[in-house]
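The data layer described in this paper is built around a simple, fixed record for each protein. Because each token names a local backbone shape, the row as a whole describes the fold. We quote a single record here, exactly as it is kept in our systems:

***
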Amino acid sequence: VVAVPNSVFYDHPTAGRTQVRFAFCKREDVLTDAAQRLRKAFNG
């Protein structure tokens, strides 16, 4: 998972700075497994 600030998509440096885009470059089953692991890690 990669977080990309929206500001890189605009000519003006402050445009889009309150937003972020996420790229999920994995198969859905891998993302589902990762989400389950994170839930387990943070919820005990």
User: Anything to note?
Assistant: The radius of gyration is 15 Å. Residues 2-43 form one domain. The chain has a mean pLDDT of 85.
